[in-house]
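2024-03-11 09:14:02 INFO queue: dequeued item DNA-3-methyladenine glycosylase II, len=217
2024-03-11 09:14:02 INFO validating residues
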Amino acid sequence: MGRSSTAGVTPEYWDEACRHLAKRDRVMKKLIPQFGEARLQSRGDAFTTLARSIVGQQISVKAAQSVWDKFLVAVGGPASRIAPASVLALEVSALRAAGLSARKAEYLTDLARHFEDGAVHVKQWQHMDDEAIIDELVAIRGIGRWTAEMFLIFYLMRPNVLPLDDLGLLKGISTSYFSGEPVSRAEARELGEGWAPFRSVATWYLWRSLDPLPVEV
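2024-03-11 09:14:37 INFO prediction written
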């Protein structure tokens, strides 16, 4: 699948996915109409999206925004698009001055190096399967499977991702399907099989069931 870096890109498959899920799943049939015309929307470019995910790790949304704003000033780029070369041109001290920890500064430099050296095949991603892209991304320091799966859903808008390490997904399943009882990854995986080939869409609606505000990057 292809996509551009313009704002507000929405998956073409969304309406088909909603019809499919409503037919197959009694909870989805009730849940989907509650959010009207709301859709997943993707913004930005690949490098900027991943950089922002690294900046936001293990800190509050408010703190992440503050650090991100300082980081943008340091690299001297527009908020929508940061060049990897701009990050590589900075000394670690400049990254630290933007409020980044030493570890996150290293992660961002490694991310930029992977993009600048062509170690990630951005132009080929549309022809690669999900696991192949995840393998490329987790080779970058600071990016684990969960971050890679979020990237697949929110940036590449892949339709069939089931992020079993996501606490929000497990909580949504627990609340909507198991009356609040704890849910194991195995139970979530089994339930998710019924959502294929649109597991990303089902996941998005379960996130929305916990937080009515649109989830976007």
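2024-03-11 09:14:37 INFO annotate: The two ends are 18 Å apart (CA to CA).
2024-03-11 09:14:38 INFO item closed
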